[in-house]
Input
Amino acid sequence: MRYFYLLFFTFLIISCENNTDIVNKDLKPSYINFKNAWDERNLYGEVKEIKKYKTIFQNSNQEGKSKLIFKEIFTDFGAIKEIEYFDDSGQTLQKENYKYDNNGYLLKYTFKNPSRNRRIVQLLVNDTINNITKKSYFVNGTLNQQFTLFYNDEDYITKYISIENNDTINVFTTYKFNEQSKMLWSFQKEEQTGDTILVNHFVYNDIGNFMEYTSNNPNQGGIFNKYEWKNDRVSKIEHYIIYPGLSKRLSDITEYDRQFNPINVKEFIESKINTELKYQYKFDKTGNWIERTVYMKEHYINSKKFTPAYIEKRKIKYWN
Output
């Protein structure tokens, strides 16, 4: 089933019951080819709603006020239904709503930013017989851009047509796969100019785990990720920023637990370590984290130890 992101049977279970600081070793995360938004967000079980609260520590006693910063609601088939961000006073910063048809295809996406008086609506028409999707974007009620996307039988986009301000752009995408049907390359080229718009490249090891991923626009830059695996799970990712001309700089190095939760993040500026974050978790019985405490080491001032920075808590409801 084709799912769209940007990019109801109700028996609710609050996940704070039976919490633990030990991760469930039997669970295995998804790293690519996500089936739904639960996979994409590294969530386990049929999650219906998440509310995230954050407390920024004001002193060494870890005192501070807990504030709701984020809410996310899912459908019973694992697609995003609503996303809402909040400011320090509890008012809505921005809100997103998603509406689907009976087959799980996105029909309408709405984005609202009250403080900037901005409203974006995306309307979609899905032709599942001919594998075509048409999208229309409206900004504050005015048509801004239109897309027509063409898919192959494997649900990969092979072509899209963009119309904006009476300008039409045709973009073709080609793919290359290895003998195990894993993607090696994808190229996006503009038909009129022949210019390469985007190149995605995967490198795998001998057992099929991806080791490197590059996504790059020759004129604008992109990203390069390098992966390390341990016991058939991703244990570390080095993230690089690619600049025009193909030069790249290290952005961060993130280490993960078995369930792909970050446990240590080293952040770099000009390829020099700037800050380091350490995460400690508590989990519910389904395997999702419901509390994480973040400690910071400020390398840029030659700090020698981690100090408590903030704590995040998630209240999670499940469909069943």
About this structure: Helices lie at 37-40.
